[in-house]
Amino acid sequence: MDWQADLLPAALLGGAFVLLLVIAEAWTVLASPAPERPRKLVHLVGGLICLSFPWLLRSPWTVGVLAIGLTVLFVASRSLGMLRCLHGVERKSRGVEYYPAMVFTLFWLAHERPWLYAASLLALAVADALAALVGKRYGRILYEVDDEKRSLEGSLTFFLAALVAIGLPLVLSNEATLPSFYDRLPIAVVTAILVTLFEAISRHGRDNLWVPLGTYMVLSRLTGAAENEAYYQVLSLSSACLIVGVLGMFSRALNVGATLTLMLAVYGCWALASFDWALPLLSAVVVSSLVCIWLPPTWPLRARAMLHMVLPVVLVAAAGDLCAIADRTYAYDLLYAAFVGGCLMVLVQNLWHGEIRRRRTGGVPMAVWCAGISLLATGAIAVPLWIREIGMTLQFAVLLLAIAAIACIWHDRLFMGYAPHTQRPALVARRHLSIALAMAACAAMQASGLIPLLSPR
């Protein structure tokens, strides 16, 4: 049985982890280094130990037992005030507890493809450790992601290290199903850029989840795509970053974290499905940014608030991609209608929570603001789809107008008095509910036959 053959290697690996923790703790107690250094030593060396798993261990459950044991040790040591080498940092972080779980997940998903496991793990173990050390020591150009600070120097180091960590296993692999050597290079570049964005917007140690998982998902998709698909991905990612970055900088409607989140969302819709799926969200970004240039917002929207807005529409785009793969055309079209309704709500929320929301209190009747926002949001979403000849009809435009008007009233009643970045659970639930209802209304009207189906390409 696999687990019996794993007993000796698992015992040796467990002993190696314990020895590493003893060395790091002794360094912390005896030499009092900067808190990040012993933590990143454990991060880096522990990752290199985990790198050997596909060649030493056979069963994912063996890795699962090791992961559970380490997680219990890390949680207990935090509660008891032990292992200062891991828990001595001032910033709030749960990354230590996430690390074993993610190693188990990667092994379960990719242990039969060692190069993919190695690339995903190295992006976390090497790139993240180097970025933290360089950022702490040499970081001068700082930017904020909500309550945490990042440095441009650290992010650039992460990108370069991730490019090497991802590119080497990919280029050196002899797996027969992989694309040609010249297609592997842009795949490595796109993946490194994306995981750098993941790392930049991840807070409280969640990069230990999103960086390796994002690396695995992106590499799995791109290495199995059609020939020359990687070059298309480079073009779409560059376009999304350029458009959103420039608009975010000039509109001052978004902080850096929210801008990076929006870049990932636009690219995600484009890459998962097609440009037709990215177009409504991209149009919402352009229009809300132009409005905020005209009416500068009091507060820039923060990363967490932006994530709550765009996550539902990105998930719908991912579901549409699955329907396309399964050749479910009818479900694909219904999901696109729901996606359009979700993008409309993203635009309405951005407009209402910007400077318009503050000016609403200046004596202008609510009906005037409601009509203006509704017409602007409807036109911003409907006109590009009509130009693309996707099937936008007058009936669907009227439905979008009605949804936008109801959304304005909803926001006026439930969100006035709160800053745009307020993230109380009740308010977040209301935002998600309003987006879900708009999506359901668009899909239901098309499913009933009252509105012709949209036909995205």
TrEMBL record:
Key word Disulfide bond present: no
Transport listed as a keyword: no
Segments crossing the lipid bilayer: 6-29, 63-83, 95-111, 117-135, 156-172, 184-201, 230-247, 279-297, 309-328, 334-352, 364-387, 393-412, 433-454
InterPro entries for the chain: Dgk1-like (IPR037997)
Keyword vocabulary terms for this entry: Membrane, Nucleotidyltransferase, Transferase, Transmembrane, Transmembrane helix
GO molecular function: ATP-dependent diacylglycerol kinase activity; nucleotidyltransferase activity
Annotated PANTHER family: CTP-DEPENDENT DIACYLGLYCEROL KINASE 1 (PTHR31303)
Protein name per Swiss-Prot or TrEMBL: Cytidylyltransferase family protein
Organism lineage: Bacteria, Pseudomonadati, Planctomycetota, Planctomycetia, Pirellulales
